[in-house]
Amino acid sequence: MAPTYPKAPTAWRLARGCWSAFWDYETPKVIVVRNRRLGVVYRAVQLLILLYFVWYVFIVQKSYQDSETGPESSVITKVKGITESEHKVWDVEEYVKPPEGGSVFSIITRIEVTPFQTLGACPESIRVPNVTCRSDANCTAGELDMLGNGLRTGRCVPYYHGAAKTCEVSGWCPVEDGASVSHFLGKMAPNFTILIKNSIHYPKFQFSKGNIAHREDDYLRHCTFDQGSDPYCPIFRLGFIVEQAGENFTELAHRGGVIGVVINWDCDLDLPASQCNPKYSFRRLDPKHVPASSGYNFSLGKSLLHPRFAKYFNMNSTITRTLIKAYGIRIDVIVHGQAGKFSLIPTIINLATALTSIGVGSFLCDWILLTFMNKNKVYSHKKFDKMVNTPDQHIGQGLPTSGSPHQDSIPTDPKGLAQL
């Protein structure tokens, strides 16, 4: 039976090694490689990393700041101006919908009026699909078309004009395509003025500001917006807004469309509050060159903005209405922005990231030395020490003597610095 040895020495060595590893200090080996090309690569990589963090991260992105996006915002609008059509003068109460003065509103620039509609039977609009006919057999009584104007009676009757025939419907007659009259309101519309009152608040920094100058006089009664001379006079001409959006006013007034007024509040709160100013931009929001997505339907002659509404009245004990289909310019006021202020935490994080990233230069140069240099084996031998485990019998005998098989465990350079 083989003798057993006590395991206490092994456990003691393990405990002593763990204790030593806890208190010992380790430092990487430094090797100076006298190679000018490699030195240039190393310093160039360090310089590029340093420039990236100093210029882009800290100056452009201002990563030393704590930031907040999407300010709390309120928008109040007011339109002023009068215009005229062929036989009528129009004021704000008639051509602005809705009248509440919110961030989204529409200015009517053209209408198609179908006057004196009454409940009765009349030819269906020829624009409705599958409505043309030759005889009563082509019309089904009681059929209701969701795109039509009423309930079909089953009769085939002559159309309002021309030689065509359509199925008769029971509803409000005449239908709008049969007796509508177009009125253009855009003659004076470019001179309409729009007041856009905007207030923003960044709750994280407790910062609030508005886009109207605080003045005691009647400054707003006589000013119009100019980014250079009057940036705090938010009164815009409708023609100016359409022009800045790159659109033709006459075409837009006839067809209708959506214009976005974008107010951008980008504020550096390390600077005085007077440096936090709104920036305005204008663009068309509906893609006019894509008929399906822009809302245009050429077969029906409809545009994106053509709400229908009616005005009812009683004439000789008969309920009568005037149907109005309106085309116009819809204004969407959009507010966004970002505020930033110095904070110690993001500054420390980004500084630590920058200092760590500079080590990429050492990693790259080590890879070049170990892979492409002629003396890569020499460099590998100098950089990495090959340590051999010491047998148990040598413990306590000190360091191995010269020429022993354990010579690899002794550093070849007592100063820790080797040069190539």
Automatic annotation (TrEMBL):
List where the protein spans the membrane. Answer: 40-58, 351-373
Gene Ontology biological process terms in this record = calcium ion transmembrane transport; response to ATP
- Annotated residues that bind ATP are located at K78, V79, K80, T193, K325
Report the catalytic activity: K(+)(in) = K(+)(out); Ca(2+)(in) = Ca(2+)(out); Na(+)(in) = Na(+)(out)
- Complex formation: Homotrimer and heterotrimer; functional P2XRs are organized as homomeric and heteromeric trimers. Homotrimer. Forms heterotrimer with P2RX1. Forms heterotrimer with P2RX6. Forms heterotrimer with P2RX3.
The species this protein was found in: Fukomys damarensis
Q: Which PANTHER family match?
A: P2X PURINOCEPTOR (PTHR10125), P2X PURINOCEPTOR 2 (PTHR10125:SF4)
> Listed disulfide bonds for this chain?
C122-C173, C133-C156, C139-C167, C223-C233, C267-C276
Gene Ontology molecular function, alphabetical: ATP binding; extracellularly ATP-gated monoatomic cation channel activity; purinergic nucleotide receptor activity
Q: Where in the cell is it found?
A: Cell membrane; Membrane
Annotated segments matching region Disordered = 395-420
Task: Tell me where it mainly resides.
Answer: membrane
- The reply on keyword Nucleotide-binding is yes
Q: How does it sit in the membrane?
A: Multi-pass membrane protein
The UniProt entry, under InterPro entries, shows: P2X2_purnocptor, P2X_extracellular_dom_sf, P2X_purnocptor, P2X_receptor, P2X_RECEPTOR_CS
Which spans does this entry mark as compositional bias, Polar residues?
399-410
Determine if Plastid is one of this entry's keywords: no
Glycosylated sites: N191
Q: Which GO terms describe its cellular component?
A: plasma membrane; postsynapse; receptor complex
Provide this UniProt record's keywords sorted from A to Z: ATP-binding, Cell membrane, Disulfide bond, Glycoprotein, Ion channel, Ion transport, Ligand-gated ion channel, Membrane, Nucleotide-binding, Receptor, Transmembrane, Transmembrane helix, Transport
By what name is this protein known? P2X purinoceptor
What the record says about family reads: Belongs to the P2X receptor family.
Taxonomically, the superkingdom here is: Eukaryota
